[in-house]
Amino acid sequence: MSLPHNYEMVIGLEVHAQITTQSKLFSGSATAFGAEPNTQANSIDLGMPGMLPVLNAGAVDAGIKLGLAINATVNKTSVFARKNYYYPDLPKGYQISQYDKPIVEHGNIDIDLPDGTSKNIRITRMHLEEDAGKSIHDMGATNVSYVDLNRAGVPLMEIVSEPDLRTPEEAGAYMKKMRTLVRFLGICDGDMEKGNLRCDANVSVRKIGSDKLNTRCEIKNLNSIRHVMEAIQFEAERHVTVWESGGEVGQETRLWDPDAHETRTLRSKEDAHDYRYFPDPDLLPLNLKQERIEKIRATLPKLPDVLKQEFLKMGLAPEQAGLISSDKDIYDYFMKVPFRDVMPREIANWITGDLFAVLNKSGKDITESPVSPEDLGHLMNNINSGEISGKIAKQVFATMVETGDDPSTIISKGGLSQISDESALKAACEKALAANPEAVAKYKAGNERIFGSFVGFVMKETKGQANPELVNTLLKSLLA
Ligand code: ADP
Ligand code: MG
Q1: What is the CATH number of the domain that holds 432?
Q2: I need a labelling partner for 438 at 20 to 30 A (CA). Which of 237, 314, 350, 467 fits?
Q3: Is 163 in the pocket of ligand 1 (CB under 6 A)?
């Protein structure tokens, strides 16, 4: 995707990530997804007078984690502020957010581009804020809207990037990386379909070579990576058309309509002063002790970029190292496979080959894999130890998928162990030669290619269970 007329895109993303806490940012109400409307909203979430918010320490810890993971400054003091606006799904008349003193500032992440290169993107800030409720306009009855306040007060991180992104692909890669990061940190499910990771895309265009920041439009609430990319492409093309026709792009908040494949004006852009931000008098400034930050630093898991390097060192192919270090579910599966240290590459191959084929066919996710990581590891070990051949392993694997049995049960039930008993194999080899005197004569006359037919005979005779290396050696010595 690109732009005509020597233009380039300038893109900055504001990602909203729902923090996986049991309770809300300032109240004890549950945050579980899918509950009956308005069953998870108490008087704090409803903005009843006289109710005081109490900050959720777990949400703060999650924010610190993110700050450390993106090499940012975690501010020792940050301040919660009221962002004032009226909407039926915001009964308080204000959203508690952070404004000029956010908890995290000046970070950066490396995004992984489709061509295998990476690019560093600066992150301006991350602040904590509460979500609003949800207005429902399409419940059947005309002229009636409903309000569900279950989501009101759910903790969010708003992660704001610098306008460093230049293409829809870079924006997509940024979202992917952010999703991977929060999932590895265990602070957000990153499930865009459920809306617990979504973003606003700010887009402007300029002539290549210029470093001017032109007027931007903000496209609200994009809830899939495809929508992010398509909306940015559409919006940038729209800007080029406006500028090229001598017009002027106006600063606006817009919405993406995926069906019509276009962005539309929602409202002309509001400015910060429209919101009358002021420090929330019900909440003290958030003061963090260095000890608390260090304690959290010590609990940080290994992050995707580090994991990728480790997997490459273990001998994984670059695409596999990239895949396993960027998908938390695949990573979790891989890390549970026993004997991973002995044969990492083979196990990665088996996962991205045979296992993925089965999952694709049945439309299942790796978390619902019919083959457990433990069983897969034991199967691989059976190959490695010579118990079964690679070929028989495919057969055992198919039975594992079908029956859910573990590999050793399948191998012993089916009598599938590899035959490495020399005397038994020697007898089969002798039989192969005795049954094919003409082929033996041809071989001895110099036709070496016919050797394969003896191996084939022995394999057939042993139902594929003969140890192929041993068969080779035995046949060679019998024919010498
Ligand atoms: P607001 O709070 O009004 O949304 P911010 O200054 O926080 O404004 O910026 C929001 C986002 O817009 C940031 O991600 C920033 O990188 C991006 N941005 C700022 N200027 C431009 C521009 N000219 N073109 C594209 N993105 C921009
Ligand atoms: Mg904004």
Answers
A1: 1.10.10.410
A2: 467
A3: yes
Quote the ligand 2 centre to 14 CA distance (angstroms).
7
The number of folded domains in the chain is: 3
Based on the fold, state whether residues 406 and 447 are members of the same structural domain. no
**What percentage of the chain has pLDDT greater than the value 70?**
99
For the stretch 76-88, pLDDT in tens is 999 999 999 999 9
186 and 50 share one domain: yes
224 and 143 both lie in a single domain: yes
Provide the Cα torsion 377, 380, 386, 391; round to 10°: 150
Claim: this prediction has a pTM higher than 0.85: yes
Q: Give 147's Cβ-side CA count (13 Å radius).
A: 12
Best probe residue, ligand 1, of 7, 10, 11, 14 (max atoms within 8 Å of C-beta): 14
What whole-number distance in Å separates Cα of residue 4 and Cα of residue 203?
16
Is 249 near ligand 1, meaning CB less than 6 Å away?
no
pLDDT 10s digits, 129-143: 999 999 998 877 788
How far apart, in whole angstroms, are the C-alpha atoms of residue 228 and residue 222? 6
